[in-house]
Amino acid sequence: METVVEIFTHKRFEKCEVNADRKNGHMLVFYAFLGLLITTIWITYYYYVPKIHSPIPLTDPMKWLANLSALALIGGILILIFNRTKDKGFDTRSSSFDWTFVVMILLLAITGILTELIRLAGIASLAYPMYFIHLLFVFYTIVYFPYSKLAHMGYRTLAITYSKMTGRDITL
Questions:
Q1: Phi/psi of residue 12, each to 5°?
Q2: Start-end of H helices in the chain
Q3: C-alpha torsion 52→55→61→63, nearest 10
Q4: Rounded CA gap, 145 and 120, in Å?
Q5: Contacts of 6 (CB under 8 A, 6+ apart)
Q6: Residue 138 — pLDDT band, cuts 50, 70, 90?
Q7: d(Cα 4, Cα 54) in Å, to the nearest integer?
Q8: DSSP code of 6?
Q9: Contact between residue 88 and residue 43 where contact means Cβ atoms under 8 Å apart
Q10: Residues 68-121 pLDDT 10s
């Protein structure tokens, strides 16, 4: 339970002065992905149990969670991009793969929102290609999950759990 609380509050960011400014963006991205995961499960339930199909009305709580999560994802990614580009007074290095992943997540969120807006506008000839592009970014995120920044969710969870079980405190 201590590990779960620590992950959900991102307490370790407060202990590290170098990464403290990344906490808000990180939290937004974390909770956005959690909200989008819940939304995906929820829409799957809609399709197969009560057999509710698209379009889901904007008044549905599932849509509220989806749209709020999408906005949080864009906000969090933009905060992370801003923090990466500002001068921190020391030399930092990011690989092109790190930047590619951040840009892909931003494009994932943008294409998801555009898909919904185009569909609400009733332009099916654009909505379906946009949805296809969005699904390509979803596919990228899933396939490259073990090789991306998202993989540290699993690694960090194990490391924090291990440190708590052994009584050792890891600082980062």
A1: -65, -25
A2: 2-9, 12-15, 23-48, 61-85, 96-120, 124-143, 152-166
A3: 140
A4: 31
A5: 12, 160
A6: very high
A7: 35
A8: H
A9: no
A10: 999 999 999 999 899 888 766 655 666 666 788 889 999 999 999 999 999 999
Positive or negative: CA dihedral 141, 81, 156, 29: negative
Place of tokens 């073990």: 146
- The amino acid that residue 25 corresponds to is G
The half-sphere exposure of 147 on its side-chain side, counting CA atoms within 13 A, is 8
Local structure of 41: helix, strand or coil: helix
Distance CA 74, CA 106 (A): 6
Sequence letter at residue 40? T
Tokens of 78: 């933009």
pTM for the whole thing? 0.80
State the Cα–Cα distance between residues 87 and 128, nearest whole angstrom. 41
| Residue pLDDT, tens place only, 18-66 | 555 677 888 899 899 999 999 999 999 999 999 988 788 999 999 999 9
Residue at token pair 């030399």? 91
Distance (Å, whole) CA 93 – CA 8: 27
